[in-house]
Amino acid sequence: MVVSAQAHRATAETEVAEAEDEEMDFFQDVEQLQNHGINMADIKKLQTVGICTVKGVMMTTKKRLAEVKGLSEAKVDKIKEAACKIMKNGFMTALEVCAKRKQCFKISTGSTELDKLLGGGIESQSITEVFGEFRTGKTQLSHTLCATCQLPNGSYRGGKVIFIDTEHTL
Description:
about 0% strand, RecA_ATP-bd, about 50% helix, 2 strands, single chain, mainly alpha, DNA polymerase, domain 1, nucleotide-binding, two-stranded antiparallel sheet, ATP-dependent DNA damage sensor activity, 2 domains, ATP-binding, single-stranded DNA binding
C-alpha cells in the first residue's frame, strides 16, 4: 500500500513538472536571446517596443523589427535566427498532427441531446463561443462546463478554466 502511494505521488510530481515545462516553453523571456549571441542593448530595444517574449519576436515581422530604432537588418536576421533556435518551431508532419489531435477529448455539456448535436460534447484544447438571445441558457451552460471540465474523469485528471463574461451576467 505504501509503495503504490509513493508511486502515485511520483507520477503526480512528474505530471506537475511536465505541465510546468509546457508553460515554460510557451512563455520564454526575450532575455534568453542573450544566451544565443544577442547583446543586452538590443534586447532592451525589443522590450521598449513591447516585445517581451521569444514568441513575440517570432510573431513580429522582420520589417517591423527593422523599424525599431537601432536595429539593422543584419541584427534583425540574427535575432530571428536566435529566436528560431530557442522556439524550435517548424513544420509538423501529418503523424505529429494526428498525435496532437488524439490528445483532444470531448467535455460533456451535461445534456446528452446537446452532446449529440455537438458531436460528443465540447472539444478540449480549443476556444468555444456561445451566443444567442438572452435567457436561453448560455450562462448556465458555461457554469456547467466550468465545473465538469475540472473534474477528473478516466485518464483525464481535471483541468483549468478561464471564464470571460463580457456582459456582466454573474
